[in-house]
Every structure is written in C-alpha cells, then in structure tokens.
Amino acid sequence: MSAVRVLVVDDSLTMRNLISAALRQDPDIEVVGAAADPIEARAAIKALNPDVLTLDVEMPNMNGLEFLEKIMRLRPMPVVMVSTLTAAGTDVTLAALEIGAVDAVAKPAVARADAFGELIVKVKAAARSRVRARGDTPAAAAAPRGYVVDPSHVLAIGASTGGVEALVTVLSGFPADCPATVITQHMPASFTVSFAARLDRLCAPTVSEAREGDLLKPGHIYLAPGGVAHLELSSGPSPRCRLVATDPVNGHRPSVDVMFESVARLKRPMTGVILTGMGKDGARGLVAMRQAGARTLGQDEATCVVYGMPRAAYELGAVERQLPLHRLSPAILDLCAAPAARTPV
C-alpha cells in the first residue's frame, strides 16, 4: 500500500513544522507540502494532489471554515481539522465536522511534535474514509405519521469518526417528544459541552451533556462527557445517568460498549443504534442489548464516513437492519413509539 500523502495547512510556521514532524514519525505517511493560508493551499492541492489535508481553524485571507466549505463543494477530500481549545475554536471545529471534515485534533498546549498523540491515527483513518460533496447527504426523513412516544422506552446511540454530521442528521429528524436518549460520541473532553449546546440549538428535543444523577425523560437527549468518564444508566424503575471514571475501554473513555452494556441491564423497552466510526467499540455492547430483547439498527456502509463500528456490530449479529443515514430517524422513532402507534411489521 502506498504512503498517505498529506498537505499541512496552518498559518504558524512553528505549528506547520510540528505537525509535519509528528506525521513523519510514521513511515506510511508522506508530508508532500505545507501551506500558510488557503490561497497557498489551493495551489498546493492542485499541484500535489494530496490524499489528506490537515487544516487550521483560524487563518488569514480566508478562515478554515470558509475554505473547507469550498473544498467540500468543489473538490471533496478527507480533512482533519487542527483546533485550538478555546470556546470559539471548538465551535468552529464542530461546524467543520458538520460540513464534512472527517475528524479533529487539538493543538497541544506545549509545542512538541510528540504532543500530537492521535494525529497519525486520525490522518490514516481519514485516508480510508468516504467523503461526499457538500449537499450530497439527503435530509432526514420525517417522523412516522401518528408517532407517539413510549415514555418507558430508552434509546442508546453510539458513534465515532464522522459522527458529528451523522448525529446532526439523525437528531434533526426527531420531534420535541423524542424517546429518552443517551449518546456516546468519541470526542475530546473540551468538545462535548459545545457539541451538546449546538445540538440543542439545531434539534427540537432538549440536548445536554449528561450529568451524574440526571433522570432519563422523554424529550431529552443526554450526551456522554468527553474524556473524563463512561456514561452508564442505573437500573431500577427510574433510570438515571451515571458517570463512571474507570479505565478506557477499546481505547475510549467514554466507551459505547460500556453505555450499551448498561442499557442492556435495564428491564424496559430499548433500542440501540450504531453509527459511523473507526474500530469496533459498541459491537459487543449492542450484542448484549439485542440478546436482552432490544431492537437494533446500524448505519449502512454507503453512508458511513468510516464503516468500522457498524461493520463490527453487523458481523457479530448485533444489528437487525442496516439503513442509510437519512432513513434512520423515522426507523428509530417507529421502534421507540408507543405500541399502538408502531408501523405493523
């Protein structure tokens, strides 16, 4: 397999050198060039034809978001955003992930090449991802006619690489009275507060970062905090969110497997959904949910940015049906509806 060809775009010479040095540590990556702004980057893309772009959020002449929109409209390619950890930097990065950037890494507080711990993995995953032109993803289909939520139903969704765009698509199809929903999306600690707030603005239900002791209620969506703990649900007549600061599972904290396995222990109707993502986190937990009587869905290969987690779950027999992204919302809502309101099988 040929090396992944990467173009590094950042207005800071120091950061360009650091990113390039970090990537060159892997023999399967070739840094083919660097650019200080979008004007230089545009010329370099034409001349060098890179496989992956690393893109700074804030740059002169045109910010990273505007440049990304042009890329995704005119020449779609895998892009990994390199973000500051400020609130403004986080918000712009989340917008970039919605537009179609594959993933994001945070700029290190200390300027050392070895501080970019995840960059190599994310760049190589980006090279294998499916990138679509801006606007090619259909909007989520409408909720089923006559939908009425089952107040006892629990919905659990897991996602990773490509999950920001996927979750926005799925949740934008939910009505305000959606099923009580818990989500684990692999994301840095600094991002999940902003992501929950962004989803809350974009979607009809109430979306918040999960807190210890939150009572699950219909019309509410609870997002696992990034980096610090796993999100679990307590058993009992009134499930609550629990944040458990144990070791990473499958290399992740929060882990989709941990969340799914806790949902599988609930004595109530439940649905599990696994979306785009690298690796296999969530596959084992979704098996546990299905064995406990849950209904289960997976995003199909054609619409995944990375068909890793859904593939692993499907191959284990955890997924009843695979559906394209835009068809997942109505299918989920149908499974979570009050029994009398469900579509006959």
From TrEMBL:
| UniProt superkingdom | Bacteria
Q: List the subcellular locations.
A: Cytoplasm
User: What keyword terms does UniProt attach to this protein?
Assistant: Chemotaxis, Cytoplasm, Hydrolase, Phosphoprotein
Q: Which residues form a coiled coil?
A: none
Taking every annotated instance into account, which residue ranges of this chain make up the domain CheB-type methylesterase? Answer: 148-333
Residues modified as 4-aspartylphosphate: 56
The entry's comment on post-translational modification says: Phosphorylated by CheA. Phosphorylation of the N-terminal regulatory domain activates the methylesterase activity.
The Enzyme Commission number assigned here is 3.1.1.61, 3.5.1.44
Q: Which reaction does it catalyse?
A: [protein]-L-glutamate 5-O-methyl ester + H2O = L-glutamyl-[protein] + methanol + H(+); L-glutaminyl-[protein] + H2O = L-glutamyl-[protein] + NH4(+)
Q: What is its main location?
A: cytoplasm
Which residues are annotated as active site?
A: 160, 186, 281
Q: Where is the Response regulatory domain?
A: 5-122
Q: Does the keyword Amino-acid biosynthesis apply?
A: no
Q: Name one Pfam family in it.
A: Response_reg
User: Which family does the similarity line name?
Assistant: Belongs to the CheB family.
- What is this protein for, i.e. what is its function? Involved in chemotaxis. Part of a chemotaxis signal transduction system that modulates chemotaxis in response to various stimuli. Catalyzes the demethylation of specific methylglutamate residues introduced into the chemoreceptors (methyl-accepting chemotaxis proteins or MCP) by CheR. Also mediates the irreversible deamidation of specific glutamine residues to glutamic acid.
This protein's domain notes: Contains a C-terminal catalytic domain, and an N-terminal region which modulates catalytic activity.
Query: Under which name does UniProt file this protein?
Result: Protein-glutamate methylesterase/protein-glutamine glutaminase
Q: Which gene encodes it?
A: cheB
